[in-house]
Design brief:
By secondary structure, the protein is an all-alpha fold. The chain contains 11 helices and no strands. The longest helix is centred in the middle third of the chain and has 29 residues.
Length: 264
């Protein structure tokens, strides 16, 4: 167990503001847990812990993507609080994921509230756009970004720095079966997240590649994941060039275009 200093708390707030805005705008996708947790580990002085937490949390959130009006649990808070809880409460990474989920849900509902409440600004936005008042239009958008950024920073400061002692006391007061339950749930979440991703991406013609990767990763001993990544890249290149060749020799339609009737 370790304590988070005020300087580390302020750095976490700065990180939350940056990645929170990136998540809101979906700009550079640096808000993904694999990046956020690694940076948090660097701030806390334990990069290895951050990378492990980031890898597990990224898998858990791999298949969770906003679609339409739906909003999944917030990946920013999960990416920050998982290494923070593992660092301050002294629990393992899987248990920390389970403990970090309430913070992720909290930010999810705050953002859902903002999505609804910000609609009141649309009347003014339409008015400024109609008047071609670019200055007022920009200030209105910046105001909403400031609200979102400040909320991310405030929630992270309260959760990671102010509440670190109460959270540690809460974890210590938990019975063994409950802590074990959080660990089991946290261990299952990455598999659930990856299954959700496969539910969208998996095609029957790609199943052989999935089986080869599973057998290689499960039954062949290796010291790190680099061989799996290299073999995956080789198979992806083979499939890419094979598809390129098929498109080159694909029959043309009467109007001279390529026949895509057999799929993409």
């Amino acid at each position: 167990m370790h304590d988070i200093t005020l300087i580390q708390g302020i750095l976490l707030v700065v990180l939350a503001i940056i990645v929170g805005l990136d998540a809101w705008l979906e700009g550079f996708f640096i808000f993904r847990p694999i990046i956020v947790s690694t940076v948090v580990g660097f701030i806390l002085g334990d990069v290895k812990l951050g990378i492990i937490c980031g890898g597990l949390t990224e898998l858990a959130f791999a298949g969770l993507t906003p679609a339409g009006g739906t909003q999944p649990p917030n990946p920013v808070l999960a990416g920050i609080m998982t290494p923070v809880l593992a660092y301050t409460a002294g629990v393992d990474e899987k248990t920390a994921i389970g403990l970090a989920l309430p913070f992720s849900f909290l930010m999810q509902y705050i953002l859902l509230f903002y999505y609804s409440s910000f609609s009141v600004f649309m009347v003014k936005a339409d008015k400024y756009a109609k008047e071609a008042n670019t200055g007022a239009f920009a200030r209105l958008n910046i105001l909403m970004l400031i609200i979102v950024a400040a909320t991310n920073g405030l929630v992270v400061f309260l959760s990671a720095y102010v509440a670190q002692t109460p959270m540690r006391n809460l974890v210590e007061s938990m019975p063994e079966w409950l802590t074990h339950g959080f660990g089991v749930a946290g261990g299952i979440l990455p598999a659930v997240g990856f299954a959700l991703l496969l539910r969208v991406m998996m095609k029957k013609e790609l199943v052989p590649f999935f089986i080869v990767g599973f057998v290689f990763a499960s039954f062949i001993p290796y010291s790190n994941l680099l061989p799996v990544a290299v073999i995956g890249a080789a198979l992806a290149l083979y499939d890419y060039f094979n598809n390129q060749k098929k498109q080159t020799f694909a029959p043309s339609t009467p109007d001279g275009g390529v026949d895509y009737s057999d799929g993409i």
